[in-house]
Amino acid sequence: VRLRAFTCRHNNIHNMKTLLYFAALVCLATAAKLPLGEEEEFVLPPPKPYNFGFEVRDDDTTNYQNRAEASDSEGRVRGSYSYVLPDGYVYTVTYEDNKDGLGLKTVVKKERSGIEVV
């Protein structure tokens, strides 16, 4: 009985190795058929200007927030968003990316809102 169990396990290992070799052979054959022509250079289309925004003013839930953003034909982006948190302060974040390689510039302001948040 022990010899039979060893033989069965040995056959399973042999079958698994055969399957892996076959899968590797299929992958190599598929890769060999791929064209080796020159790669096309991907060119990004020019940026499209956009402008959007929204505002929420819900006195029942004291949910106050807004956002505005605009982009120009050069891909420069500027915008801001603000919200009132339970601490009663309005937080305003302004951001700008001039596409000058310096990345996104942000400024965060915290101001007393005068709103009692429920």
The main sheet orders its strands as 1-2-3-4-5
Helical content class: 25-40%
What kind of sheet is the major sheet? 5 strands, antiparallel
Q: Stretches where pLDDT falls below 50 for ≥5 residues?
A: none
Please report which band the strand proportion falls in: under 5%, 5-15%, 15-25%, 25-35%, 35-45% or over 45%: 35-45%
Tell how many strands the DSSP assignment holds: 5
- How many separate helices? 1
Mean pLDDT: 84
Radius of gyration: 31 Å
- Shape summary: elongated
| Gap from first CA to last CA | 76 Å
**Structural class, judged by helices and strands?**
alpha+beta
| Chain oligomer state | single chain
Pattern of helices and strands: HEEEEE
Provide structural commentary.
The N and C termini lie far apart (76 Å). With 118 residues, the chain is of the alpha+beta class. The longest helix is centred in the N-terminal third of the chain and has 32 residues, at 2-33. The protein has one helix at residues 2-33, and strands spanning 50-58, 63-71, 77-84, 89-97, 105-112. The model has no long low-confidence stretch (mean pLDDT 84). 0% of the residues are buried. Strands 1-2-3-4-5 form a 5-stranded antiparallel beta sheet, with no helix packed on it.
